[in-house]
Design brief:
Structural class: alpha/beta
Number of strands: 20
Radius of gyration: 28 Å
Strand content: 15-25%
């Protein structure tokens, strides 16, 4: 594969500029779902908002550039007034017949860019090229100008191709891209490292090093992942056999394929084919059952062993035996467990096939992983998309009601008081980043998920609103709250003096699932309504 344009070969295809316009929209702009009929580039000049491409959500801001393949479904909404340039293209094939060139419509865009954000080096140069092309397009009057505009388009596309970046911001190596295209095309056949290195014009060792630096994994692992992804697509279709799928993706032996599939995905391909009908149980202390609920499913059982500070080994062992007995009686087809229960992995697998959720995953990745296991990927995409739009709407409303007033979240435990604020926790990310609430200085939003204090050592709660999260079911938390209310840090707080202390539910847990985050947004709206009503009363 190459991104150089093969101009004027005997059968060439090339893009032509179809239209180009500069679009301005206000902060309440919302574009409902529609399909793109031509390949398109979208450059954001100013503003912040959301762009949903094929149900995948992208946050946008000034200088972000997106490529949209033909047929892409698009939705958009703005956080602030926005301005962008839209460039749509037609693709034609040039064919030489008897010494004359003929131009015929062609469905395929000649550059293999995936739909989504197009990251490039020298971003400002790309923006300037885009703007110059738009100015030239607006001034098009004569045939010579048309030729110049199409030439500038090709120069722009060539510039973007040469400076395109990987997700890790490494420069895209076109020789590696050629080898990846080769993998995609010939994955059903035997592919050697020497073949891939030859496609890239490198030695096998240099190829392997370059590939891992650019993609984060070895070429062998990348090929296996590509094969497994294609296998998942085929296994989701009717009338497919595991043997046929194994052969289609380059595994001649179906038993070897089954082993590789299970190693990669966590369940056997035979179970994957029935995943929409599975009876699923969860074993976790991280409420994985809430993810199933967000997907419209009910867990056959939702169990977990919690280790309390005062709990001895005998009590925990008794709790574990009871959990396993209840789980057996449920007779699940699949168990989804968190890493807190990996210490009895073998016992769980004796009851049913068990998949452990990687603790390194963030809440969105966890939701997607569980959706894949349950065959509910489309529902997961809809959940994430709806949540982003809902958060955008709520952020506008909160900004209107609270303005720049400071908000602090306190968690009361039996052992300490936590001031939350770091972006490492999904709740902090939701409140202070996505909803743009103003944190008080003591929240330290960019340092830790939270900072712990005793009641006597807590600093002055210099904030306009206190969101109070406590756990009444935990013995001692009520006592800690009473001690806090006796301190000067509490009684001198602007939030306390103004009566702006709001008790909330367990938002720490709720922030890790779509349904929980929706509930948090609902509660924040209610809080804003009460704030307005109180203000009007005075």
């Amino acid at each position: 594969m190459t991104e150089q344009f093969p101009f004027f070969s005997k059968t060439s295809s090339l893009p032509l500029l179809s239209s180009m316009c500069r679009v301005r929209r206000g902060e309440n702009f919302r574009l409902r779902e529609q399909a793109v009929t031509r390949p398109m580039l979208c450059l954001v000049l100013q503003g912040e908002g959301l762009l949903v491409l094929n149900d995948k959500v992208h946050t946008v801001q000034a200088n972000h550039l997106f490529f949209l393949e033909r047929g892409t479904t698009i939705e958009a909404a703005s956080r602030t007034p926005m301005e962008c340039i839209l460039l749509s293209m037609n693709t034609v094939r040039l064919k030489q017949v008897r010494g004359e060139w003929h131009m015929l419509p062609h469905p395929e865009f000649p550059i293999h860019w995936p739909t989504g954000r197009l990251r490039v080096r020298h971003e400002s140069q790309s923006v300037q090229r885009f703007i110059r092309l738009h100015e030239a397009y607006r001034g098009t009057r004569q045939q010579e100008h048309c030729i110049s505009v199409h030439s500038q388009l090709h120069e722009l596309l060539q510039h973007l191709s040469e400076h395109r970046l990987e997700d890790n911001l490494e420069k895209v190596d076109l020789s590696l891209e050629r080898s990846i295209a080769y993998m995609q095309r010939y994955m059903s056949e035997g592919i050697s490292m020497d073949q891939l290195a030859k496609m890239a014009g490198l030695t096998a060792s240099s190829y392997s090093r370059s590939f891992k630096k650019a993609k984060g994994i070895s070429p062998t692992d990348y090929l296996n992942r590509m094969r497994i992804d294609e296998a998942k697509r085929l296994l989701s279709q009717d009338k497919q056999t595991i043997k046929d799928v194994a052969e289609s993706v380059g595994y001649g032996n179906e038993y070897y394929f089954s082993r590789k599939f299970k190693q990669s995905f966590g369940m056997a391909p035979s179970l994957y084919m029935k995943r929409r009908q599975l009876k699923i149980a969860t074993v976790s202390t991280s409420h994985l059952q809430d993810h199933l609920s967000s997907l419209g499913l009910e867990a056959a059982a939702a169990l977990g062993v919690s280790k309390e500070r005062e709990q001895g080994d005998v009590d925990q062992s008794r709790q574990l035996i009871g959990l396993l007995d209840r789980l057996r009686r449920t007779k699940p087809d699949l168990i989804i467990a968190d890493h807190n229960h990996s210490f009895f992995r073998d016992r769980l697998k004796m009851i049913a096939p068990t998949v452990f959720i990687d603790p390194a995953l963030d809440w969105k990745e966890t939701h997607w992983r569980i959706a894949e296991l349950a065959g509910q990927e489309e529902r997961a995409l809809q959940n994430l998309k709806q949540l982003e739009f809902r958060a955008l709407d709520v952020s506008k409303r909160l900004r209107q009601h609270f303005g720049r007033e400071r908000v602090t979240l306190l968690q009361i435990t039996p052992y300490c008081i936590r001031i939350l604020g770091g972006l490492r926790h999904p709740l902090n990310e939701l409140l202070y980043h996505q909803l743009c609430l103003q944190p008080a200085s003591l929240t330290q939003p960019n340092i830790h998920s939270w900072v712990e204090y005793t009641a006597d050592s807590i600093p002055l709660l210099d904030t306009d609103h206190l969101l109070l999260l406590r756990s009444p079911e935990q013995a001692g938390s009520e006592k800690m709250l009473r001690r806090l209310k006796q301190t000067a840090a509490w009684n001198r707080s602007p939030a306390v003096l103004q009566g702006s202390v709001h008790e909330i539910q367990d938002w720490m847990r709720m922030s890790r699932t779509p349904s929980g985050r929706q509930q948090i947004l609902n509660e924040l709206e209610q809080l804003a309504d009460r704030h307005v009503a109180l203000f009007q009363a005075y």
